[in-house]
Design a protein that fits this description.
single chain; mainly beta; Methylamine Dehydrogenase, Chain H; four-stranded antiparallel β-sheet; 54 strands; 43% strand; globular
C-alpha cells in the first residue's frame, strides 16, 4: 500500500479544511422548561385515570410520540403505560391489573424492530415476582414471561427493576434485582416469543462483599464488541457496587468495584443504580447515587477495559444530589442527565456535563413544575429533551416535561454527505436547521473516497479505495474529527464497494471480485479483528450495496443489469440467508439501498435513459410501495439514506458539481435543498447524521 495505517491517520489529522462551510450560530439564552402534563390526583387506593409516579424515562415511537410507564395510578392503582404527543396530549394505553399482566413498572420501554414496545414490571404476574411484557402502540399488551417465585439454588431471577435492551441476535436482554442461584440477581435473555434463559446469577456474598456485585437495578448497554455492559448496585470487592460486562454467551467479567468510602466520601462513587451509556468516543459514562467528595453522588467515565475516571462530584446545592438515572449524549457531544434531589429548591435538577467534566446546572425543580426526576432524558425530533418527574406538579403525582437548551439541535434528521476531489474527501454534516459544518481530508495519492456510513452514536465512516485492491476505513466523530482508521488488503482483483455499521458498532464491508462478481463481506471491529464470508459468483449478478438493521441483520442489494432485476438478501446475525427478487423493470437499474429505524429496506431505482428515480419501500412481508421522482434535466440520483426521523434522504448530483438533497417523508410532499456548484468536487454518498 502507498500509505500505511499510521501515515493515513496522520495525514488526515493534518488536513486543511478547504470546502466552504459555516458553523451554526445559536442565540445565547437560558434553557426553557415546559410542563407538558400533570398526572392526576389519586384516591386512597392510588387509582386515577392517567397514572401517577412515573419513575422511568420516555421512549420515542416511530410515530414521533413518546411512550412511558407509571408505577401507580390507572384503573387499580398499580401502574400504566401511556403515550404523549410532543405537544402534551396524553393517552392511557394500558392499566395494569396486578395479576397475570404484572404491576409496578419501574423501567422505561424499549422499541422493538416490529414497532412494538417491550418492558418489565417489578411485581405482579402469575407468581407476584414481576413480568416481561410487549405492548403495541395502540395499547394491546401481551405478557411474555412471569418470573417464578424464588427457589433456593434455582436459576431464575425475580423482581426486574431495569428495562430491556435489544441484542444483535433479535432477542432482548435484561436484569433482575433479586433471585438467581444466590438471590442476588441475574442477567437474562428472552426471545420475542417469551423463552427466557438465565445467562448469569450473581454470586453469594459475605458481610456485603463479593467479587462480581449484586442486585442490578439498571438496563444494559451494548458495546462495540457486542458485549453488554452494566452496573450492580451493591457488593463487589468493597461492598459498594460494580461495573461489569457480559458476553451474549454468558461469559462475565467484573470491570470495576467502587471503593470503600471514608464516612460518606470517596472518589469514584457508591451505589450505581443507573445504567451506562456508550459515548461517541467509545467509552461508557454513568452515575453513582452516593459517594464522591461530599457523599452526594458522582458522574464517571469508564473504558471497555475497566479504567474508571471520576468526572464530577455533586455538591447538593445548586447542582443537585443523588442521581438515580443515567445519562444521554446530545448532538453537541455533551452529556445530559438528572439528579433526583438537591438544587435551588431541593427538588432535583437537570444538568449538562462535558466529557472532560465541565458541569452546568440547567434547571432546578420547584415542586410546581415537578419533583424528583428519576428517569433518563430522551431527545425528541425537535432537539429538545423530554422526561418525567416522579412526584410534584399540580397534583403531586408527577409530570412530563420538555427542556429546550439553546445550541442543541435535533438528533433526528441530519445528514452526512461525502464529497470527492481528486483523492481529497470532504465530509459535510447537514443539520435540519442551521448551517452546514464540514471537514476535509487529504489528498492522498492513489486513494479515492468512495462511500460513507454512520453508527447509532452519530459517528461517520469513510471508505477509501486504492487502485491495487487495498481499502481503508476511517471513523470520524460527530464533531468531524478523525478517531480511528484501519487498512485492508491489497487483495488482487477485489474492490471494496460499500460499508455499513451495525448497532453493535461493527463495520460491515462489502467487496466485489471484478472478474466474476463474487462477493465477500467483512465483519470488522475496528482496530481489533475481522471475519469474512464469501458468496457467489452468480452469473450476471453483482453485489453493489449493503445495510445493517437494528437487529444486526445484514441486507445486501444485488443487481442484474442485463435483466433489469434486483435481489435483496437478508443475512441474520446467525448466518441464515433469505432473498427476494424484484423486477424485471425494463430500463431501470437498482442503484441504492438503505434501512430505516423501522427496519424496512428502501431501494432507489434509476431509469437509465431519463435519470428518473423510483423509491421502493420493502415491507417485512415482501410487499413493495413506490414513489416516482423526476426526471429533472441534468440531474442523476446518486445516494440514499434514512434518517432517525424515518424520512428518506435522496441525493442527486449533476455535471456542474451540485448536490440536491430531497427529504422524503412516508406521507406528504418532499422538501429539497441544493448546494454548490464547487469546482472539481462531486458529491458521491450520504448517510444518516447525528
Amino acid at each position: 500500500m502507498k500509505h500505511s495505517k499510521c501515515s493515513l491517520v496522520l495525514l488526515g489529522l493534518l488536513a486543511l479544511l478547504v470546502m466552504p462551510c459555516a458553523t451554526a450560530v445559536f442565540a445565547v439564552s437560558a434553557p426553557t422548561l415546559t410542563t407538558l402534563h400533570d398526572f392526576g390526583a389519586t384516591n386512597a387506593d392510588s387509582q386515577n385515570a392517567d397514572g401517577a409516579g412515573p419513575w422511568a424515562g420516555l421512549t420515542v415511537g416511530s410515530d414521533g410520540n413518546f411512550y412511558g410507564t407509571t408505577i401507580l395510578g390507572g384503573a387499580v392503582g398499580v401502574g400504566t403505560v401511556f403515550k404523549i404527543t410532543p405537544a402534551g396530549t396524553l393517552s392511557t394505553l394500558y392499566s395494569f391489573t396486578g395479576t397475570s399482566d404484572g404491576a409496578t413498572p419501574y423501567a422505561d420501554l424499549v422499541r422493538g424492530a416490529d414497532g412494538n414496545f417491550y418492558g418489565t414490571t417489578c411485581y405482579g404476574g402469575l407468581y407476584g415476582k414481576g413480568t416481561v411484557f410487549m405492548v403495541t402502540p395502540l395499547g394491546a399488551l401481551t405478557t411474555l414471561y412471569s418470573f417464578p417465585g424464588i427457589t433456593i439454588g434455582g436459576a431464575n431471577g425475580v423482581n426486574p427493576w431495569a428495562g430491556l435492551v435489544l441484542g444483535g441476535d433479535g432477542n432482548v436482554y435484561g436484569t433482575t434485582c433479586y433471585g438467581g442461584a444466590n438471590n442476588t440477581g441475574t442477567i437474562f435473555k428472552i426471545t420475542p416469543s417469551g423463552t427466557l434463559t438465565t445467562l448469569y446469577s450473581f454470586t453469594a456474598y459475605g458481610q456485603g462483599v463479593n467479587a462480581d456485585g449484586s442486585n442490578p437495578m439498571a438496563d444494559l448497554a451494548i458495546g462495540s464488541d457486542g458485549d453488554f455492559y452494566g452496573t450492580a448496585s451493591m457488593c463487589g470487592a468493597y461492598g459498594q457496587g460494580t461495573i461489569f460486562k457480559i458476553a451474549p454467551s454468558g461469559t462475565f467479567t467484573t470491570l470495576h468495584s467502587f471503593s470503600l468510602p471514608s464516612g460518606s466520601e470517596n472518589s469514584d462513587g457508591v451505589r450505581p443504580y443507573a445504567g451506562l451509556i456508550k459515548g461517541s468516543d467509545g467509552s461508557f459514562y454513568g452515575t453513582a447515587q452516593l459517594g464522591g467528595d461530599l457523599g452526594y453522588g458522582t458522574i464517571f467515565k469508564i473504558t471497555s477495559g475497566g479504567t474508571l475516571t471520576p468526572l464530577y462530584s455533586f455538591l447538593d446545592d445548586p447542582d443537585g444530589a443523588e442521581p438515580f438515572s443515567g445519562l444521554i449524549q446530545a448532538s453537541d457531544d455533551n452529556l445530559y442527565g438528572a439528579a433526583q434531589f438537591g438544587g435551588a429548591y431541593s427538588r432535583g435538577v437537570l444538568f449538562r456535563i462535558t466529557t472532560s467534566g465541565a458541569f452546568t446546572t440547567l434547571h432546578s425543580f420547584n415542586w410546581t413544575d415537578g419533583d424528583q426526576p428519576r428517569g433518563r432524558l430522551v431527545i425528541g425530533g425537535d432537539g429538545s429533551f423530554y422526561g418525567t418527574t416522579s412526584s410534584g406538579g399540580a397534583n403531586g403525582s408527577g409530570t412530563v416535561f420538555k427542556l429546550t437548551v439553546p445550541g442543541v439541535g435535533p438528533v433526528a434528521g441530519s445528514t452526512y454527505a461525502l464529497w470527492n476531489h481528486s483523492g481529497q474527501a470532504a465530509l459535510w454534516k447537514i443539520p435540519v436547521t442551521g448551517s452546514v459544518t464540514s471537514a476535509s481530508f487529504g489528498p492522498f495519492t492513489g486513494w479515492t473516497p468512495s462511500a460513507t456510513a454512520s453508527d447509532t452514536s452519530g459517528n461517520a465512516y469513510i471508505l477509501w479505495n486504492y487502485s491495487n485492491g487495498a481499502a481503508s476505513v476511517w471513523k470520524v466523530s460527530s464533531s468531524l474529527k478523525l478517531t480511528t482508521s484501519q487498512s485492508f488488503g491489497p487483495y488482487t482483483g477485489w474492490t471494496a464497494k460499500a460499508l455499513a455499521v451495525g448497532p453493535d458498532g461493527n463495520v460491515h464491508l462489502l467487496w466485489n471480485h471484478t472478474s466474476d462478481n463474487a462477493a465477500s463481506i467483512f465483519n470488522i471491529v475496528l482496530g481489533t479483528s475481522s471475519t469474512s464470508k464469501s458468496y457467489g459468483p452468480f452469473t450476471g449478478w453483482q453485489a453493489t450495496q449493503i445495510a445493517v438493521d437494528s437487529n444486526n441483520n445484514t441486507r445486501v442489494l444485488w443487481s442484474n443489469s442485463s435483466l433489469y432485476e434486483a435481489a435483496l438478501w437478508n443475512i441474520t446475525s446467525a448466518g441464515v440467508q433469505t432473498s427476494q427478487t424484484l423486477g424485471p423493470y425494463s430500463g431501470w437499474q437498482a442503484q441504492c439501498l438503505a434501512v430505516g429505524p423501522d427496519n424496512l429496506a428502501r431501494i432507489v431505482w434509476n431509469y437509465t435513459s431519463t435519470k428518473q428515480a423510483s423509491l421502493f419501500t420493502v415491507a417485512s412481508d415482501g410487499s413493495v410501495t413506490s414513489k416516482a421522482l423526476g426526471p429533472y434535466a441534468g440531474w442523476t440520483p446518486a445516494g440514499l439514506a434514512v434518517n432517525n426521523d424515518g424520512d428518506s434522504e435522496l441525493m442527486w448530483n449533476n455535471a456542474s458539481n451540485q448536490l440536491s438533497l430531497f427529504d422524503i417523508p412516508s406521507t406528504g410532499s418532499f422538501t429539497s435543498a441544493a448546494y454548490g456548484p464547487f469546482s472539481g468536487w462531486k458529491a458521491i454518498a450520504i448517510a444518516p447524521g447525528p
